[in-house]
Amino acid sequence: MVALIEKYRSFLSLTDKTPIISLQEGNTPLIPAPRLSEMVGARVFLKFEGANPTGSFKDRGMTMAVSKAVEEGARAVMCASTGNTSAAAAAYAARAGIDCIVLIPEGKVAMGKLAQVAVTGAKVVAVNGNFDQALDMVRYLTDRYPIALVNSINPYRMEGQMTGAFEVVDELGFAPTWQAMPVGNAGNITAYWMGYRAYHKAGKNQTLPRMIGFQAAGAAPLVLGHTVPHPDTIATAIRIGNPARGDQALEAARDSGGAIDSVTDEEILAAYRLLTSKEGVFCEPASASSVAGILKRCKTQPFDKNDTVVCILTGHGLKDPQTAIDMTSQLPVLEPEGETLAKHLGLTP
Q1: What does R_g of the chain's alpha carbons equal in angstroms?
Q2: Is residue 52 within 8 Å of 92, Cβ to Cβ?
Q3: Edge-to-edge strands, sheet with 123-127
Q4: 158: left (phi > 0), else alpha (psi -120 to 50), else beta?
Q5: Virtual torsion, Cα 207, 8, 76, 314, nearest 10 deg
C-alpha cells in the first residue's frame, strides 16, 4: 500500500532524503448519515478519523512531522498533549526508532489515550497545570535541546493533516458546502482550509467549503475573544484555553464565510449519544462537538436541502471509554433461565 504522504507527495514538503515513517494512516471512511441528514435538512457525511492507526486524526500530521524530524537528524520528539497527540507521537516515534517525550496536564487526559502512550515506552510527565502551560514547557525545551517539537505549531503537522481535505474531495468528487469540526488547539481547521485551497489551486475542486468550527463552551477562547485560563469541559481533546493556531482558525472561518461557535457539554453529550444510537458511529466526546454544532446551527440558520455538510469526527470512542460507561445504566444480572430473560425483555409468544 502507498503511504498517505507518498500518495499526496506533490502537495507536501518531501524530499528524496525524507524517510517515510508510516503506519498506513489515512483513507478513513466518509460515512453517509441519513438520520442526521433528516434532522438538519441537508446531506450530512461523517469523516471518521477514529479509523486511523492510533484512533485519531493526529496520525495524519504525525507521519509527516516524524518523517521530517528523522530527516533532519532528530533523535527524539516532544509534545504537550490532552491525549491524542501523545498517542500519535509515541507510536510514530516508536516506528522511527527514536525517543518520545510527552507532557500531559495532570488528571486531564482520558485513560484510553494515556494507556496507548504508556505501553510504547515513551517518557511521560504529568504537569501540575493545563495544556497551555505544558506547551510552554515544550517550547522552552525544544528551543534549547536537540528535540523536535511535534505539536500543531510544527508546520509539517499542518501539511499532513490537510490530506484529510484531499480525501473528502476525492471521495465526494467535489468540496462540501460546509465543513464542521471540533476546535481545540485550532490546528485541524487551519490544516483543512489549507488543504481545500491547495486542491482548489490545483483544479481538484471548483468551489471551497464554508468552515464552521465548534469549541466547548467551557473552553471557548475564540468565541469569547480572550484566553480561558482554566478551561473546563467533558470533551478533554478540546480542553484548551489558548489555541496555538487560534488566529489562523479565525482567518479560515472568516475567509471561507464560516464561523467559530461554541456548544455546551450537554449538547456535546447529546450528539455523542445520537451518533451511536442513530448512526452506529462511536466517536470520542470532543468529536461530537461538530455534530452538536450543526444541530444547534440549523435551528437558527437552516441549511439548504442541496447543501453537503461534512462533519469531522476526530477520534474513536474507545479513546474515552469512561464517558460511555458513565452514561450507561447498571447492567441487569439475571439467572440463566430462558423464561426469566423473556420476561425481562417483555417478549410475548
Answers
A1: 20
A2: no
A3: 123-127, 99-105, 76-80, 148-149
A4: alpha
A5: 40
Whether the Cβ atoms of residue 154 and residue 186 lie closer than 8 Å to each other:
no
Q: What is the pTM of this model?
A: 0.94
- What confidence tier does 111 reach under pLDDT thresholds 50, 70, 90? confident
Distance CA 174, CA 276 (A): 27
Enumerate residues 6+ apart whose C-beta is below 8 A from 269: 234, 285, 288, 323, 327
- Among 268, 246, 345, 264, which Cα is nearest to 314's? 268
E runs forming strands in 62-177 = 76-80, 99-105, 123-127, 148-149
Residue 281 carries which side chain, given as an amino acid letter? V
Grid coordinates representing 183? Answer: 476546535
**CA dist., res. 336 & res. 101, Å (int):** 50
Backbone angles phi, psi at 128, to 5 degrees: -80, 70
User: What pLDDT is stored for residue 118 in this prediction?
Assistant: 85
Q: Which three cell numbers stand for residue 164?
A: 484529510
Grid coordinates representing 153?
505549531
Look at residues 49, 321, 269, 294 and name the one whose alpha carbon lies nearest to residue 177: 294
27, 52, 119, 165, 206 from 197: Cα distances, Å: 20, 24, 39, 9, 10
CB 198, CB 169: distance < 8 Å? no
Which residue type occupies 17?
K
pLDDT digits (tens, 9 = 90+) for 331-349: 889 999 999 999 999 999 8
**Strand pairing report for 148-149 and 123-127:** unpaired
Please give the Cα distance from 263 to 142 (Å, whole number).
34
**Are the C-beta atoms of residues 33 and 283 closer than 8 Å to each other?**
no
Question: Cα–Cα distance between 179 and 185 in angstroms, integer?
Answer: 17
Per-residue pLDDT tens for 268-314? 999 999 999 999 999 999 999 999 999 999 999 999 999 999 999 99
